[in-house]
């Protein structure tokens, strides 16, 4: 990070979706708020992108894993190996859907990444729908999304799991952030929109983007950054921009790029963005 890096930002390690991709990495985001940074998801190749970004391995206080699809979880094991080898010192809680706790405990054992090897205390903590918890000064609200519901309906009789996937509200002193991770429909986010949102990172892979813009036109959102675009939308990103400007005039939004820091606006952002002239709005793919 150089001197031009803003005080509060989200560093996007990967903005790709679930398809193999030549251009984009898979989902991982570091929310560097005033204090207590949080890493959300560990899509690959996080161990490389994290090292390239130059962050300390003690940089973040906790990891949130939204679910276990490979594009959100696939880089976790190697990243954990990196935390061991690079000698992280700060204790680490990894919050994850409860289906995964025993599995990940076993996974690190067969990978010989024993907790006793780590120079820090490692703890896996289950996430439950709407049960808030704190990470340092921040309050996290996990909301279960419908992302995995169709798979649950098909396979629950064979695999009696919870099929949980979580979106997150992150409430800090000066900001309220909503991170969608994967959703089944934009309405999944409504429980997180009960207060003005300074910054929202929303995926676009699993529904018609028009539905998102139509819904968000009814809520105060300071800034929206779009991620997880499927290839056909990524290649036609100007159409997404045009659609958003048409359906949601006044909304400050753009498509997130990766391996860069996006400034997180503070608690005046919603009012400011609502008074902005649409012609001055950010519309480039940045
Ligand atoms: Zn995904």
Key features?
alpha/beta, 286 residues, globular, 9 helices, binds zinc ion, seven-stranded mixed sheet, Metallo-beta-lactamase, Chain A, disordered C terminus
Give unreliable regions as ranges: 274-286
Please give the number of β-strands: 14
Number of domains: 1
Strand line-up of the largest beta sheet: 6-5-4-3-2-1-14
Classify the oligomer. single chain
Please report which band the strand proportion falls in: under 5%, 5-15%, 15-25%, 25-35%, 35-45% or over 45%: 15-25%
CATH architecture name: 4-Layer Sandwich
Any idea of the CATH class? Alpha Beta
What profile does the largest beta sheet have? 7 strands, mixed
Radius of gyration in whole Å, from Cα? 18 Å
| Order of helical and strand elements | EEEHEHHEHEEEHEEEHEHHEEH
Number of helices: 9
Q: Which fold name corresponds to the CATH topology?
A: Metallo-beta-lactamase, Chain A
State the helical fraction: 10-25%
Q: Determine the CATH superfamily.
A: Ribonuclease Z/Hydroxyacylglutathione hydrolase-like
Our measurement of the CA-to-CA distance between the termini, rounded to an integer number of angstroms, reads: 18 Å
| Secondary-structure class | alpha/beta
What characteristic shape results from the CA principal axes?
globular
Provide the list of bound ligands, each named once. Answer: zinc ion
Please, what is the average pLDDT?
A: 92
